[in-house]
Design goal:
Nucleotidyltransferase, domain 5; 24% strand; ATP binding; hydrolase; GDA1_CD39_NTPase; alpha/beta; 12 helices
């Protein structure tokens, strides 16, 4: 056997072993996801699903309306979306108030779902990074209060309707939502990649089309969920602690002038090269208040902040080379900060990585910043895209908040998963 055949044989054995391992260990509850076709013909012709997104910075309600045909085909008709702040993690000292924030959204749901549909309409809350970062005893007390609110509501609440969503499922559901709305689920090779940046975590998800991605990616990044009643290979990973708010806190620590006392009367002060020298504010994060200010030495700007963002990221983010060849949609805080920079409007748009970076540099050089954290935030996003993910400056990004009036969040993917 010559060297070329040996290499091919080795790759074949490795790939086969990988698929066998994934099949045994990674096909999980996501396999129950139902898509456009629902086999159960007993579903009512009009179906509603209520999904709560318990995020780190806010709690959002999605009320989805579906139409089902007698043959089992499912069509998304509409979505209602609303957000209240703070997120559940903001009520660790008063879990009952966390439930009250949910109850006010449940009252709104009553006006959207017909009375005769209340008892058959499933409701669920999936908490994300904000609660993943809390101790179990604390997060459980918050979730218990929310469950009581659901149990006392007229909607259908199952035993597992209030849970912490895993980072992998968060990425999968967001990818599913995006590709469902774009009509890209029938051919995974033509599906789009999703980069989702939340407050506490960030997710990278796409369906690989090259063997290199399968062979060289960490084994727990490759999953085999059922999509459109077919087993589909998905690359997904969630980085806890690399969400925008968590990263902001860490970069403030990394970039703080150590000559300034870090604590004064119990309040921590950050004097950062990522903040304009003339700016100062009180910032609330994870139930704590911080004094945030710029450095009087004048070491402010994109370059100094970028070095600190890269130092914070290190080599934590895996770089799938295939990502450069895929169509990429960027969601959540990616969209918000691009909008704040003025490079997209409310409808979103297509911009290159370099266009985002140049706009960020311009913002960081402004003598009167639009918003105190904008330079830090956009610099971190730049570091995440370029240093972390290895995206080239010419790579196009599609910024999307909604598609056809539907939020590009993981909520719709979770709603489909509840229709069983």
């Amino acid at each position: 056997m010559d060297d070329q055949h040996k290499i091919k044989w080795t790759l074949y054995v490795a790939l086969t072993s990988l698929f066998l391992f994934i099949t045994v260990s990674e096909v999980r509850h996501f396999t129950s996801l139902r898509t456009i076709f629902i086999s159960e013909t007993h579903l009512p012709l009009q179906k509603y699903v209520i999904v709560f997104d318990g995020g780190s910075t806010g709690t959002r309600i999605h009320v989805f309306s579906f139409a089902t045909s007698l043959s089992g085909h499912l069509t998304l008709k509409s979505e209602y979306f609303e957000e209240v702040k703070p997120g559940l993690s903001g009520y660790v000292n008063n879990p009952h108030e966390a439930a009250n924030s949910v109850i006010q959204l449940l009252e709104k749901a009553k006006t959207l779902v017909p009375l005769d549909k209340w008892s058959e309409t499933p409701v669920a809350l999936k908490a994300t990074a904000g609660l993943r970062l809390l101790p179990d005893t604390v997060s459980n007390s918050l979730l218990e209060e929310v469950y009581k609110a659901f149990d006392n509501s007229p909607f259908h609440s199952s035993d597992d309707c209030v849970t912490i969503l895993s980072g992998e499922d968060e990425g999968l559901y967001a990818w599913y939502t995006l590709n469902f709305l774009l009509g890209r689920l029938n051919d995974a090779n033509h599906s789009v990649a999703s980069l989702d940046l939340g407050g506490g975590s960030t997710q990278i998800t796409f369906s690989p089309a090259t063997l290199d991605t399968l062979i060289f990616s960490p084994k727990d990044y490759i999953l085999l969920p059922q999509v459109q009643n077919r087993t589909t290979t998905i690359y997904t990973h969630s980085y806890l602690g690399l969400g925008l708010m968590s990263a902001r806190h860490s970069i403030l620590q990394f970039s703080t002038d150590r000559s300034v006392p870090l604590e004064n009367n119990g309040t921590v002060t950050f004097s950062s090269s990522c903040i304009h020298p003339h700016d100062k504010t009180v910032w609330k994060h994870d139930l704590k208040e911080y004094i945030v200010m710029g450095r009087k030495s004048g070491k402010y700007g994109f370059k100094n902040c970028y070095y600190k963002a890269v130092e914070f990221l290190g080599n934590a983010v895996h770089r799938p080379e295939e990502l450069m060849k895929r169509e990429i949609y960027v969601l959540s805080y990616y969209f918000d900060r691009a909008f704040d920079l003025g490079i997209i409007g409310k409808e979103g748009g297509i911009r290159t990585v370099d266009e985002f970076v140049n706009s960020c540099k311009h913002s960081c050089s402004s003598k009167q910043p639009k918003e105190i954290f904008l330079c830090l935030d956009c610099t971190y996003i730049t570091a995440l895209m370029k240093h972390g993910l290895g995206l080239d400056g010419k790579k196009e990004l599609r910024f999307a908040k909604q598609i056809d009036g539907i939020e590009t969040s993981w909520g719709l993917g979770a709603a489909f998963n509840m229709l069983r």
